[in-house]
């Protein structure tokens, strides 16, 4: 669990990672001063032509939220935040941050971060439902809702949240929980493969859902509904590791793989 301990010095900058949709629709929330440091925030918006795929690199500090919508273009809302010793320094730092949105790629660059000088960019992105995604950040969450396609999602310190997604989906985080909510009666596409090192994995599956479920953990219990395991009498009795769950559910289907090293795995029916 030593890697989890490294998160502590990042507590201040992880405030940058809140998904943009948590902010009021008219822009950034009020910041003011935090102790002896000044803060600055601004919204930058852009539109890209939809090409069927999108790559997002949020940089060191920042979260990425991607949602499907009925439009035919990609809409990008970037929330740029800075922390510095003075108001002027915070504004000047923001001017050095670049949100580069062109073609099918969004990248984030900016000045060096050290001491009391920190910055981050969080994204809220609307895409057509059928869009392949490559999303990367270091300190921040990744959230995807309603999207179908090939997805490669990577964060080091932050949670991954997936809601009503489909396709060939692969998500990895080192320090953070993974939360998945499925819909329909069967996975559509290649399958789901999500993994964390330090954190719980929670999967919500509709009753009667067809899939091949594989779940494992090294340090922690596995909890599944009674219908998924002959050893289970109810959801309160855990399936003891190192024995993983590996079985067809309701006739089987594409693979739903959920793995953690340090934490529980919980599968519930909805």
Q: How would you characterize the overall build of this protein?
A:
- 5% of the residues lie in helices and 52% in strands.
- The protein is mainly beta and 270 residues long.
- β6 (98-102) and β7 form a beta hairpin.
- The model is unreliable at 1-26 and 230-236 (pLDDT under 50).
Q: TL;DR?
A:
The chain has helices spanning 2-5, 87-95, and strands at 33-34, 37-49, 53-57, 64-69, 73-84, 98-102, 105-109, 118-128, 132-139, 142-145, 148-157, 160-163, 166-175, 178-181, 191-198, 201-205, 211-219, 222-223, 245-249, 255-262, 265-269. The chain is mostly beta strands.
Provide the structure class: mainly beta
What is the topology, as strand order, of the major beta sheet? 1-2-5-8-4-10-12-14-16-21-18
The portion of residues forming beta strands comes to: over 45%
SSE string, helix = H, strand = E? Answer: HEEEEEHEEEEEEEEEEEEEEEE
Provide the residue-averaged pLDDT: 85
Helical content (DSSP H or I, runs of 4+): under 10%
Stretches where pLDDT is under 50 for at least 5 consecutive residues are 1-26, 230-236
* Main β-sheet description: 11 strands, mixed
> What's the count of strands?
21
Instruction: Give the terminus-to-terminus CA distance.
Output: 32 Å
Dominant shape: globular
Number of helices: 2
The whole-angstrom Rg is: 20 Å
Keywords:
270 residues; mainly beta; 11-stranded mixed beta sheet; 10-stranded mixed beta sheet; 2 helices; 21 strands; globular; disordered N terminus; DUF4097 domain-containing protein; Toastrack_DUF4097; signal
Helices, strands, pairings?
Elements: H1 2-5, E1 33-34, E2 37-49, E3 53-57, E4 64-69, E5 73-84, H2 87-95, E6 98-102, E7 105-109, E8 118-128, E9 132-139, E10 142-145, E11 148-157, E12 160-163, E13 166-175, E14 178-181, E15 191-198, E16 201-205, E17 211-219, E18 222-223, E19 245-249, E20 255-262, E21 265-269
Parallel strand pairs: 3-7, 3-9, 4-8, 4-10, 9-11, 10-12, 11-13, 12-14, 13-15, 14-16, 15-20, 16-21, 17-20, 18-21
Antiparallel strand pairs: 1-2, 2-5, 5-8, 6-7, 17-19
Signal peptide: 1-22
Domain DUF4097: 133-237
Protein name: DUF4097 domain-containing protein
């Amino acid at each position: 669990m030593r890697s989890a301990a490294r998160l502590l010095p990042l507590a201040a900058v992880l405030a940058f990672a809140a998904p943009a949709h948590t902010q009021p629709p008219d822009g950034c929330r009020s910041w003011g001063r935090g102790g002896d440091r000044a803060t600055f925030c601004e919204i930058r918006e852009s539109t890209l032509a939809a090409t069927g795929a999108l790559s997002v690199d949020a940089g060191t500090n920042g979260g990425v939220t991607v949602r499907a919508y009925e439009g035919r273009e990609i809409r990008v809302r970037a929330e740029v935040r800075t922390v510095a010793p003075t108001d002027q320094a915070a504004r000047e730092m923001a001017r050095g941050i670049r949100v580069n949105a062109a073609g099918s790629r969004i990248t984030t660059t900016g000045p060096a971060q050290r001491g009391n000088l920190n910055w981050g960019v969080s994204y809220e992105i609307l895409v057509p439902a059928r869009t392949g995604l490559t999303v990367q950040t270091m300190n921040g969450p990744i959230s995807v809702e309603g999207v179908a396609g090939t997805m490669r999602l990577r964060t080091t310190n932050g949670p991954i949240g997936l809601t009503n997604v489909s396709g060939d989906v692969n998500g990895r985080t080192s320090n953070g929980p993974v939360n998945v909510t499925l819909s329909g009666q069967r996975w559509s596409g290649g399958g789901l493969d999500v993994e964390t090192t330090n954190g719980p994995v929670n999967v919500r599956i509709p009753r009667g859902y067809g899939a091949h479920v594989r779940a494992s953990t090294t340090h922690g219990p596995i909890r599944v509904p009674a219908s998924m395991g002959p050893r289970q009498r109810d959801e309160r009795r855990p399936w003891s590791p190192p024995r993983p769950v590996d079985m067809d559910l309701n006739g089987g289907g594409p693979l739903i793989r959920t793995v953690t090293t340090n934490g529980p795995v919980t599968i519930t029916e909805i």
